[in-house]
Design brief:
Elements: E1 11-21, E2 26-37, E3 42-46, H1 53-60, E4 68-73, E5 76-77, E6 85-89, H2 100-110, H3 116-128, H4 144-157, E7 162-166, H5 174-190, E8 194-198, H6 202-208, E9 211-216, E10 221-227, H7 230-233, H8 237-240, H9 246-265
Parallel strand pairs: 3-8, 3-9, 6-7, 7-8
Antiparallel strand pairs: 1-2, 1-4, 4-5, 9-10
Helix pairs in contact: 2-3, 2-4, 3-4, 4-5, 6-9
The chain binds adenosine-5'-diphosphate and magnesium ion.
């Protein structure tokens, strides 16, 4: 009677199954996925190519409606895209004929959120990401890492509470990638965002995530869940890699990846 209702998870997937249908066949991309992400958590999805990572993000983003199962954000069913959920991809999709700040404001335009206050917030984010000096430049003049930072600012400018990141670092050189990992990690923490990161870099998943999910394919399923201990979780990604136990975790996730890769080959 006097029980307080438990707060709903930020993201909840319950028995999510998704089939892609074509004229001639139905392909099961993911099957019976159950996942709970609490507010402020950072989780990572790893797994062989084709195991349904992008499909799961598209479902969370409301871009795909799952064939079966429930998708809830804050306990509410997802019925389409919303400003609450930001999606960032490997490719930055910046328009070269628009300046950096106009690319950032475009996100606000699309969501119908272009107010003076939100513009000021976007400029503040550009400042935070050390991009304020290039705000009048064209994306063509920027390095890959800077372009990804602009894409991140454009996503954050709409103030989503959930961020979905689909291999955002994979086109970058190693050093840039490490720097951007730290920047994104600290920025998302500071702004108390909930995040789901897809990556094929196992070390990145351990360095950034609170939990790592290893998926298998055909159909995509959760094979295992790896909890990252607090001292690694709380360190910024660059330092996390030097923490005690990091190598052991890497070997553990590596082994899990071998299991799902062998399974995928039918061994
Ligand atoms: P990942 O991101 O893990 O590489 P995806 O979610 O992109 O995997 O794809 C999962 C499976 O679904 C793959 O076998 C892929 O070929 C298939 N798939 C993805 N998108 C479509 C689509 N639009 N139509 C048909 N099959 C698709
Ligand atoms: Mg993908």
């Amino acid at each position: 009677m006097n029980q307080t209702p438990s707060t709903p998870a930020k993201i909840e997937l319950g028995h999510v199954t998704h089939l892609y249908l074509s004229a001639t066949r139905a392909f099961m991309a993911v099957r019976d996925i159950n996942l709970r992400v609490e507010e402020g958590e950072f989780i990572c999805l790893v797994g062989p190519s084709g195991c349904g990572k992008t499909t799961l993000l598209s479902i969370m983003a409301g871009l795909e409606r799952p064939t079966a199962g429930k998708v809830l954000i804050d306990g509410n069913p997802v019925s389409g895209t919303s400003r609450q959920v930001g999606y960032m991809l490997q490719q930055d999709y910046l328009f070269n004929w628009r300046s950096i700040e106009d690319n950032v404001f475009l996100g606000l335009d699309i969501q119908g959120l272009r107010t003076k206050e939100n513009e000021a917030y976007a400029l503040h984010l550009l400042e935070e990401m050390e991009l304020i000096d290039v705000r009048k430049s064209s994306p063509m003049q920027l390095s890959g890492g800077m372009r990804q930072r602009v894409a991140l600012v454009r996503t954050l400018a709409c103030q989503p509470d959930v961020l979905l990141l689909d291999e955002p670092f994979s086109a970058l050189d190693y050093q840039t990638k490490l720097k951007l990992e730290d920047l994104i990690f600290t920025t998302l923490r500071r702004h108390k965002k909930t995040a789901v990161l897809v990556t094929h870099d196992l070390s990145e998943s351990i360095a950034m995530g609170d939990r790592v999910y290893v998926l298998s394919r055909n159909p995509g399923r959760i094979n295992s869940e790896v909890h990252i201990p607090a001292h690694i979780r709380n360190a910024i990604p660059f330092d996390a890699r030097n923490q005690d136990g990091f190598q052991d975790l890497f070997h553990h996730v590596w082994k899990e990846m071998e299991v799902v890769s062998d399974a995928a080959k039918g061994h």
